[in-house]
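Take just one protein record:
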Amino acid sequence: MTIPPQYFGSAWGHVPMDGDVVPFSMINPIRGDTERTNRRHHFVSVSYMKEFANAAGRIQAYRYEAPEDPHPTTPRAVAFERDYYSQTLPEGRREHHRFEDLWNCIETVWPKTVTALAARRLSPAISLNVLGMAAIMHARVPAARDRHALMFETKLRAQCKIAEERNVLQADLRRYAGQFDTSPVGINPHETLTAMRDDFMAMGDLCFRLGFEVVHNATDTPFITSDNPVCLYDPNRSVHARRPYEHPDVVELIFPVSSRMVLRGCSKRRPTNTISRHRIVSDVRKVRQFNRTVAQFSYRLTIAQDRSSDDLIRHYARKVPTITTEVLRHEKEVQIIVRNVFGPRPVLSPFIDTRDKAERIEVSSSPLAGAEATPESGTGSAS
């Protein structure tokens, strides 16, 4: 008997194949970094976005800045940044592909998994792949990384102010004394990359609280998605009163799988951590309820097959899921209170890590730009 490789651990993800559906845990994420030059990193999977394309292979891409003017385009042409997943390794070498290779394990099995879902199939392999895609689409996107950057920024400001008060401010920051409340702070992107692991694991833990179903769309109005497609909230709150990701007791999850399917999770449903049923929705009002939630959780980009949801996308474009922070101090100790809210999308300061970059933006940059915060430094807490 041949035991399939388990690159993600011998216990977790050890589920059998389901015909042509291979569990992503069997895919080897380890590849060489030589002779690979692609540094255009998608934060929304191309294979994921293709499931929302029309017959010509194009999507409507609604940008946060201009939601009234969607661009018909191909999935490969949107939702990417240069060097979005690049990181500096401990030995000093710059690496560009490890995160991309990890996501690729799930992206590789995604098309056949979606086909199996459309055929109303259920199996552990299908559940693993769908929940895996939801997990990476919760952790890898700018909405998640920006929240971490804002927490690190708040922590760094508090640390600098305390150091100033105690007269122990490091030499290169002394000329900025008295300006730590207002100066822009550029957080090292590596810090938010490493935070993705915590978000991924938190999503995995949450799945053990939720039971799942797949909702099939029988109307002429397609489901939409976004660059922040995993929607988590308290279903007991109205859409106008809800706060993103806050669910003290009951929690609901919405994750669009394709223009015809949505994954729905609920803490009241059993069994947990698995997709246990399919159901059909034929009421366009129900479809618009799903689309309303997806539009509400969009961050930079909303993605649709057609323009039937223009009004919802425009309505929710000016507020995104983000955070507010409050710093509480007791002598030398700092506690940072973080609240999830829908508000204006934050504009983060650039991280200045080279002399050339510093010289280019020195005139418009402010004192703390380029300062680096880490979860371990200082007395505060970033969560």
Summary: The two ends are 47 Å apart (CA to CA). Helices lie at 46-49, 98-118, 124-139, 142-165, 189-207, 284-297, 310-315, 355-361.
